[in-house]
Design goal:
- The complex is a heterotrimer of chains A (about 450), B (about 375) and C (about 100).
- Chain A has 15 helices and 22 strands.
- The relative contact order of chain A is 0.14.
- Chain A has 3 domains: about 180 residues, FAD/NAD(P)-binding domain; about 140 residues, 3-Layer(bba) Sandwich (FAD/NAD(P)-binding domain); about 90 residues, Orthogonal Bundle (Arc Repressor Mutant, subunit A), CATH 1.10.10.
- With about 450 residues, chain A is α/β, with parallel strands linked by helices.
- In chain A, the strands form 6 sheets. In chain A, strands 1, 2, 3, 4, 5, 6 and 19 form a 7-stranded mixed β-sheet that branches.
- With about 375 residues, chain B is α+β, with helices and mostly antiparallel strands.
- Chain B folds into 3 domains: about 180 residues, FAD/NAD(P)-binding domain, CATH 3.50.50; about 60 residues, no CATH class; about 80 residues, D-Amino Acid Oxidase, subunit A, domain 2 (D-Amino Acid Oxidase, Chain A, domain 2).
- Chain B has 9 helices and 17 strands.
- In chain B, strands 1, 2, 8, 9, 10, 11, 16 and 17 form an 8-stranded mixed β-sheet that branches.
- By secondary structure, chain C is mainly beta.
- Chain C has a single domain, classed as Roll (Ubiquitin-like (UB roll)), CATH 3.10.20.30.
- Helices cover about 5% and strands about 30% of the residues of chain C.
- Chain C has a 5-stranded mixed β-sheet. In chain C, strands 3-4 form a two-stranded antiparallel ribbon.
- In chain C, a hairpin with a 6-residue loop joins strand 3 and strand 4.
- The termini of chain C are far apart.
- The chains are: A alpha/beta (about 450), B alpha+beta (about 375), C mainly beta (about 100).
- Chains A and C meet through strand 8 and helix 3 of A and helix 1 and strand 4 of C.
Chain lengths: ~450, ~375, ~100
């Protein structure tokens, strides 16, 4: 049994939902596959569920999320939740749900896999109790559960004040906020303010968040270095250096955040053309305004292409949906143009402050200068020292280092160590990240059982 | 700055590194140039079997060549530990070829008989195991109902192939050899005293030149107007999550690494240089593997890869001088891991001008002309 | 990790390391064991043999792997609790063959 659609969308976040809705509304047969059990992506996780812990979203944000889901539900697109895509080709995907794999074909594929937080290794980061700030956000949004206090937040990026605010409101003790952002970013980012003014509500929201952080009363430490998570099998302390002094805070939870990256496993597996963003320091799939990638049949939309935030992601999804309808001749060019114009305006408005935000929250220079004993590859227990030793032995490409050290060979398939591996390698070789290669990504990009392969329709 | 070596080896895979290691051990000034990762690299995709049994009926020399290498591995492993600091995880595991159905069992049994007959007085170490005997050897595995038995050979073994390659390279450097990684050979020219090699990172001079670049030898030998009869032969491997030590001996196609992962793969395909992964192939292999060992079905696949084997057209190695050149050599072997130990022992002298040992004397380039 | 701030919701009972645990229906296994279950850690790393717990809760880090209803190495952040579900910490290698 083979399923065939006009458009297959991977990911039910803002970009995927709006892409699928737009394409389906224009008359195409659309299927949307998502790993989660309900639509919304990470930002609107569980927004429509009956539990609706989404009260932690602001009212407007919740409405935006519900509208996206509502529009999608009415669009006629087929929705396949709890489904893991493990292989993608130009004309279809292999995916798994409830322990069974199948193939779904489509003329066009839209990768809308969103962003993830940049994993940055530091001493003790494998200790239970250390989590990403975003995971705390997901936890209360999707489960109504908050991390055990006292909580220390550390890092750089707009998510830190956001999460600190929510936790504070929920009565969680915040022991301290460790800001790792260097002062160097501030003057540079100020150059970008004029553009940012085009989206004053956005700027205002950000400033409000930061303002509220101070009102929360948590002690803040700026320009913090040498953060270390301590505890034998469970976190109990966070130590760091502040103004030249070693300090320690008692903590049950350490939430870290060092910015966002597009999730590129699928786009890299497809060998799409990628570019390196020198400010935000990540790889992203090259696309045009409509999300068309270097492969004619593949679109990449939303934060999975470039991290521009929810409003941009929604607009990018819509543009891709319009474009694919145009290409499949269910929408004439003049009608397409009518649809495109207002979406483009929304997109440009959403993009206006990004230069400022990206520069303000740019990853600091010494982000990956960790000492040798820091574990980089959590799955295989490979340290920064192991990586540097392999480089000394002549391994100058991340794939070669992977073979030498096993860095990136574990179950997460390099998702947690890939960017650190490249950064450490580039720094050691005194070159730029694009010169040290990128880990090869091969199917299955999610673990799939031998049984699923055995029972796969084409095998029999 | 132009580098200069007595011997320059082009190719830093298992074969090139093994010969480089052997030469360095003899105190010869040796350099090994290894290309950037963009080229085909069979040594980086190996399953690590030291495999001697049930192959090469009709070529007694090759059979002996393999067994003699296997015998050297134990001491090589401890030697490499000292010279490189790397444990190549050698295991005297023996090896098994599982049989599905009576017909396959009979076929395997007949093949072993023929090998034994060919070996004559020297004897042949492989034997057939009935299903019960196989079960006794691997008591923790519940075999599929269609498994009828297996061939067994105690002289097969297992290494971690990546560690073997890196140990040879690293060990060679410790012994005074030079590894020149991430460097592509662009041109080769004959000079009065030897060869001048132009790379993308400068020039290298050498007295003796060894081409050990696997499939890359075809292009390199072209500089000498020589055709190397090796073809790409594609294999696909998948690797599962870790399991406890329940498979002390590899089943050909199903191997447990010391780290605990299970590697599965056995297909051979002649598909040119296409290395894309084909799910149908994996499905086929998954079916075969679970027919032998049904519990594998529960394991999750963590990684997959494919690669091109270096396949001399008749399956046997090539060790020869480039026609018309006294000091330039071509080395190509499919079983680079299995043969690594004997390559270290025997090939350096050959490179340095001695006759190759008798067992390997037939592995010439010219044998392909005769056909 | 602990406080459950939810109210007036359906619940299910799961078994974490043999002990029964009443948790909100349709939350993830990872959330259930970290929150109501006070698990602290969800498993051990097979290479380093140290305690691990989820980092991302969105299917990226693979640190939340647990044994769920007898099946090892399941990403507990991607699986919703079900009545009667048996959940155990992932202790390095799979046990069953």
């Amino acid at each position: 049994m083979q399923e065939q659609y006009d458009v297959l969308v991977i990911g039910a976040g803002p970009a995927g939902l709006s892409a699928a809705s737009t394409a389906a509304e224009n008359g195409l047969d659309v299927i949307l596959l998502d790993e989660q059990d309900s639509p919304g992506g990470q930002i609107y996780r569980s927004v429509s569920g009956k539990k609706s812990y989404s009260r932690f979203l602001s009212k407007e944000d919740r409405n935006d999320g519900l509208n996206l889901v509502d529009r999608f539900t009415k669009s006629g697109a087929v929705y396949l939740p709890k489904t893991t895509v493990w292989d993608v080709s130009h004309d279809g995907v292999l995916c798994s749900s409830d322990g069974e794999s199948r193939e779904i074909k489509a003329q066009y594929i839209m990768v809308a896999t969103g962003a993830m937080e940049r994993p940055v290794p530091f001493k003790g980061w494998t200790t239970p109790g250390v989590m990403s700030a975003g995971s705390a956000d997901l936890l209360y949004k999707s489960s109504g559960i908050v991390p055990h206090g006292p909580v220390v937040l550390a890092g750089n990026g707009p998510l830190i004040p956001l999460v600190a605010n929510h936790l504070n409101e929920l009565g969680v003790e915040i022991a301290g906020i460790l800001n790792t952002s260097p002062f160097q970013n501030k003057p540079k980012s100020m150059l970008r303010i004029p553009l940012a003014i085009a989206d004053i509500p956005f700027l205002f929201k950000g400033l409000k968040m930061m303002g509220a952080m101070f009102l929360g009363g948590a002690k803040q430490y700026h320009n913090v270095t040498e953060i270390e998570a301590k505890g034998n099998g469970q976190l109990n302390q966070v130590s760091f250096v502040h103004r030249g002094q070693h300090k320690t805070l008692n903590a049950a939870t350490l939430l870290v955040h060092e910015g966002m990256l597009p999730r590129t496993h699928i786009t890299r597996m497809l060998n799409l053309e990628h570019k390196w963003d020198r400010v935000q320091r990540y790889w992203y799939a090259k696309t045009d305004t409509f999300g068309r990638s270097s492969n004619n049949a593949i679109y990449v939309v939303g934060d999975g292409q470039k991290v521009h935030g929810v409003n941009a992601a929604t607009a990018k999804g819509e543009l891709a949906g319009i474009d694919v309808a145009r290409r499949l001749n269910v929408l004439c060019e003049s009608a397409a143009q009518l649809q495109i114009a207002p979406v483009k305006r929304r997109l440009y408005k959403a993009l206006a402050p990004r230069g400022f935000v990206d520069a303000f929250f740019a990853p600091r220079k010494n982000l990956f200068t960790m000492v040798d004993e820091v574990v980089v590859c959590r799955c295989e227990g490979v340290t920064a020292g192991d990586i540097r030793q392999a480089i000394k032995e002549g391994c100058h490409d991340v794939n070669e280092i992977k073979l030498r050290t096993r860095c990136g060979m574990g179950p997460c398939q390099g998702r947690m160590c890939g960017s650190a591996l490249a950064e450490i390698t580039a720094a050691t070789l005194q070159t730029e990240v694009p010169n040290v290669g990128a880990l090869h990504i091969r199917p299955p990009i999610r673990p799939v059982t031998v049984r699923e392969l055995r029972d796969f329709p084409s095998a029999t | 700055m132009r580098q200069n070596f007595d011997v320059l080896i082009v190719g830093g895979g298992v074969t090139g590194a093994a010969v480089g290691y052997g030469l360095a051990k003899k105190g010869i000034s040796v350099g090994v140039v290894d290309a950037t990762p963009s080229v085909d690299r069979a040594s980086r995709s190996n399953m690590g079997l030291i495999w001697c049994q049930s192959k090469a009926l009709g070529n007694r020399n090759y059979v002996e060549w393999c067994f003699s290498s296997s015998k050297l591995f134990k001491s090589l492993a401890s030697e490499l530990k000292k010279t490189s600091g790397i444990d190549i995880e050698y295991t005297e595991s023996g090896g098994l070829i599982p049989c599905l159905g009576e017909e396959e069992f009979t076929k395997r049994s007949d093949y072993l008989d023929a090998l034994r007959k060919e070996a004559g007085e020297k004897g042949y170490p492989g034997t057939m195991l009935t299903r019960d005997e196989l079960q006794a050897k691997l008591p923790n595995i519940t075999f599929g109902t269609n498994v009828t038995g297996a061939t067994w050979c105690a002289e097969d073994g297992l290494v971690e192939p990546l560690k073997l390659m890196f140990a040879l390279r690293h060990g060679m450097e410790h012994l005074g050899g030079t590894l020149i990684p991430n460097t592509n050979v662009i041109d080769i020219a004959k000079t009065e005293s030897g060869y001048l090699i132009t790379t993308d990172d400068g020039e290298i001079e050498c007295t003796r030149l060894v081409l050990a670049a696997g499939l890359g030898n075809r292009q390199l030998a072209g500089k000498f107007n020589v055709t190397v009869p090796v073809v790409p032969n594609k294999g696909q491997v998948f690797l599962t999550e870790r399991v406890p030590d329940i498979l002390p001996s590899p089943l050909l196609g199903i191997t447990r690494t010391r780290g605990g992962t299970i590697m599965i793969g056995f297909e051979h395909e002649y598909v040119g240089t296409d290395t894309s992964l084909h799910t149908e192939k994996f499905c086929h292999v998954a079916k075969w593997a679970t027919d032998i060992w049904p519990a594998l079905a529960d394991l999750r696949i963590i990684r997959t890869w494919s690669c091109l084997r270096v396949w001399p057209k008749d399956g046997f190695p090539i060790y020869d001088k480039i026609p018309g050149h006294e000091n330039a050599f071509i080395l190509n072997a499919h079983s680079a891991v299995t043969l690594a130990a004997v390559h270290i022992a025997e090939l350096p002298d050959f490179i340095m001008g001695k006759e190759i040992c008798k067992t390997a004397a037939d592995f010439t380039l010219s044998r392909f002309d005769e056909k | 990790m602990s406080t459950n701030i939810s109210t007036t919701l359906d619940t299910v009972t799961i078994f974490f390391e043999g002990k029964s645990l009443t948790v909100p229906a349709d939350i993830s296994v990872a959330a259930a064991v970290l929150g109501p279950g006070h698990a602290g850690h969800t498993g051990k790393n097979p290479v380093m043999d140290d305690n691990r717990a989820p980092v991302c809760l969105m299917g990226v880090c693979f640190e939340c792997m647990m044994e769920i209803d007898g099946i090892p190495n399941q990403q507990s952040c991607l699986i919703t609790v079900r009545e009667g579900m048996k959940v155990k910490r992932q202790n390095t290698l799979r046990e069953k063959y």
